[in-house]
């Protein structure tokens, strides 16, 4: 019986009940030591009738070994690994040391865990229990939590226990507090009925509702040992004192054997006994510890009954004895596969510089990186550096530690290690690598001015010896400067152009294209369309330089050049590569680029789904730069629908400025979004003010700058201030000339129509409508609305109705509610009554689906299997099947073959 935990038990029972019906769920139970986390987990195990149970307990001494905790948990399911997609199977085997490891995205292992759990659950619902998760190695914790947040319809229940402070965003959280007074008294009465009233009061006061203390402190009192004098001891010290009292009553060989077991990582009984033998211990010395309830022993393992026993034994031992034990363990771990554990035991013993141990740790770190265990690698590199004499090797190992921890996103720690590494050497190459780490940290923090400065410094240090490396850093510097202002971007682009890159170097083509794009955006340099076309072609022939970041640069340059369809293709191919290879950490910028082009192409539902997915991943990874920019795109899409609340919320996130005196990364998109929201609601003055600030501010060169000019012209004309539109229209006209894209020409004609005398306006509007591509329906409808409004004002009501009717129907299908209301009001003014705009119908049925269902349906319509869709969307196949099952009735279809006939939807969310 668990006293005082009825509410917690009901939560667990509901989770298990849902699991039996095929639904998945996760629960994180946290509390201070002894609060009953493990007891609740035992209740879950005992109540798991009809479920298969997988269990794992994290161990503090294994926290530096990548994927150690995950391996213990998943051992029962590893025979299903062959059923996973090949990249996931390779990543999982490599992580667990079952096959040669391949460097890759650390999140790919998390996706493999999700798929493996889904495969295992295919044979029936599964309960996964993970105890003491605060001791999980970083790689295991990341992979497990990544999978946990994506469990949906696999029939898997996951319960994790951890001490207070364990961070697991996105999981249902059940924090445990001390038992209330009646429950505490009941527990104590059942287990210590012979306590005197005075001692019962003392135990209740000391325990403060901690169940473990309520059970253990009476044992200390029964042994005649005072629990405390004067003020109450901290709870952890009190409980540990109770454990140590029982340990101290054991024979010395048993105490030594307990210490060996506490220092050993895996609980391997044979290793523990081999290491304990030089200390005079025999297998029979396990018996007193087992009889005292401190250990549980079977044919293979030695396990402590509670983690506090392990902690108490290890922490109370003299340091000299601990060193003897670690030496014995290092000697006992003689197999090649024990190299990493052996290295760490040697590292514990080392008290000064020791190159042999440092080299062992460096090898351990390299193996960890091959398995994407970056936190473990960083720890090994850092300890190796501590055991290295001052000089180049020490600096190199510190920089390697910084680079490894950069993959984990521990920004402050990576900066600290990089600075120490740079301060320990005069080697220019190491200095450059340290600066790049610091720049990456600054960029992810949104400190773009700092990132640009550091990257420029690093590029200058290596421009003559390695111009290709310098070019990579300057491309990153241009990326950072793009968000700062015209002066910064111009200076950075000039530095990039001045690098002595060989003509055959692929990066040279990307550098020339980016330089052209920057100078065009800020109104400088060669604006000839032929030059642009040649540079795009040259960059594309080299695959935009090959690496992920340079392909993004190429796609962004295409967007700046107005070539949205081509940009969508390039970014889409990059996104497909990220999905196929499980590069989850690289997905947000690729998704953001695809979402931008979908927005520009008028595919608003696609854009919403892409941007939402990008935002979720960016938030999970803590990428503040991408969080801000993606929030701006989502604010724009919310503005299309007229959703004031969501638009302002996303705009606030986009306008969050992490760096003083620098423009927020999402500022241009936020201003454009809020202005579009105002235009939809006919708030002309507010729209003009926002757009004027965008066009005269430091980020007018960014993508929203040119693309929002038609909105500025419309607002200015509505306010009777046509003069405010002349200069922006001239910029738009110049861009149209440079880009030679019909859709930009359509915008120019629409703006001219707004400013034209009555005799010329009609032809200009008709020219704009002819130039609008069919797939950019939102902008075409806006032109039709403006033309219809003009026709009504000049009393050509019959013609006005045709234009306004077309605009109204398009806006209604797209879910652009305020724009549909504007068109309806104009139709009413012509004498044609129409119903209210209502909800979007999504040109068919996709608008009735959730965002997740829409993404799955689109991929299923292309013929992808559930397994392929799962790999694309970082879900499990069972979750894909569940959402298809939910979506089919909404769409009125009964087979996958019918999905291809659904009309494509570009409705706003």
Explain how this protein is built.
The protein is mainly alpha-helical and 909 residues long. The strands form two sheets. The protein has a five-stranded parallel beta sheet, with helices on both faces. Helix 6 links the parallel strand 3 (126-131) and strand 4. The relative contact order is 0.06.
In short:
This protein is 64% helix and 4% strand. The chain is mainly α and 909 residues long. The protein starts with 5 loop residues before the first helix and ends in an 18-residue tail after the last helix.
Write the SSE topology:
Layout: H1 6-20, E1 25-31, H2 37-46, E2 52-57, H3 68-74, H4 86-95, H5 106-121, E3 126-131, H6 138-148, E4 156-163, E5 172-175, H7 181-191, H8 197-207, H9 211-222, H10 235-248, H11 252-263, H12 269-276, H13 286-291, E6 295-297, E7 302-304, H14 307-316, H15 319-332, H16 339-349, H17 355-370, H18 374-386, H19 392-406, H20 411-423, H21 428-444, H22 448-462, H23 467-482, H24 486-497, H25 506-521, H26 529-541, H27 548-560, H28 564-581, H29 587-600, H30 604-621, H31 624-641, H32 644-654, H33 667-680, H34 684-696, H35 703-707, H36 709-718, H37 723-739, H38 742-755, H39 758-771, H40 777-793, H41 797-814, H42 817-830, H43 851-861, H44 866-873, H45 877-891
Parallel strand pairs: 1-4, 1-5, 2-3, 3-4
Antiparallel strand pairs: 6-7
Helix pairs in contact: 3-6, 4-5, 5-6, 8-9, 9-10, 10-14, 11-12, 11-14, 12-15, 15-16, 16-17, 17-18, 18-19, 19-20, 19-21, 20-21, 21-22, 22-23, 23-24, 23-25, 24-25, 25-26, 25-27, 27-28, 27-29, 28-29, 29-30, 29-31, 30-31, 30-43, 31-32, 31-33, 32-33, 33-34, 34-36, 36-37, 36-38, 37-38, 38-39, 39-40, ...
